[in-house]
Amino acid sequence: MNHYPHPILAREGWPFIGLAFLLSLFATLLWGVGLVTILFYLVFIFVIQFFRDPPRWVPEQSNAVLSPADGRIVKVEKVRDPYADRDALLISVFMNVFNVHSNRASVNGTVRSVQYFPGLFVNADLDKASSENERNAVVIDAVVDGQAHVVTLVQVAGLIARRILCYVDASHVLSKGERYGFIRFGSRVDVYLPLTAVPLVAPGDKVSATSTVLATL
Predict the structure, then answer these.
(1) Strand ranges of the sheet holding 198-199, from the earlier edge strand across to the other edge
(2) What angle do CA 185, 110, 138 make, to 5 degrees?
(3) Residue 154 within a domain
(4) What is the CA radius of gyration of the chain?
């Protein structure tokens, strides 16, 4: 089990949850029980579900690459990894507003670099989002069964997302399933792997952060 000091609801959401609750309470006091008040409470419920952050089981398979996010696979193909300057296998996970948006490490390893790029906010489901949207890339040096591998995790902002949060810097040692970032309100995470990696998912598959194995190294 991957432990997180603030289970169930992500700490990034506490201010939003508190504000939504206060507005709902104010609406109740001002208008009583009615359509407007019900709408406020529906928003409150939506905010709670968006910022849920349950603990996850971590698969023990040593060469497994875990999904960094909940969502749906939108791409599995060979591309150029511009952040580590290499040819790579890209697996992209698209998160809608109903998915958990906490981002978790796919592999054990040491962070080589963290690269932030300002950009646009087009729909994260589109191909051009990977190169044109605001994004944050974490390049990780991993050692699996004595062999060195490079894994790049890229947080990509979406149409509604306006804030990428990343909590690691260069030289940080990551553990599989460790919570390393968060993206607010709809987004995507691109995973660049060595060409020798064997994908275990396909476009259209639904995946869960940490507990789903995307590929093996």
Answers:
(1) 64-66, 213-216, 198-199
(2) 30
(3) yes
(4) 18
Q: What is the pTM of this model?
A: 0.85
In a domain, 166, yes or no: yes
Return d(Cα 210, Cα 178) in angstroms, integer.
9
pLDDT digits (tens, 9 = 90+) for 145-184: 889 999 999 999 866 555 788 999 999 999 999 999 988 7
- Catalytic hit among 24, 92, 130, 187: 187
Residue 193 half-sphere exposure, CB side, CA atoms within 13 Å? 27
Specify the number of domains making up the chain: 2
pLDDT in tens, 95-133: 888 888 889 999 999 999 999 988 665 555 556 656 677
Q: Is residue 59 part of a domain?
A: no
Domain limits at 102?
64-209
- Residue 106: active-site member: no
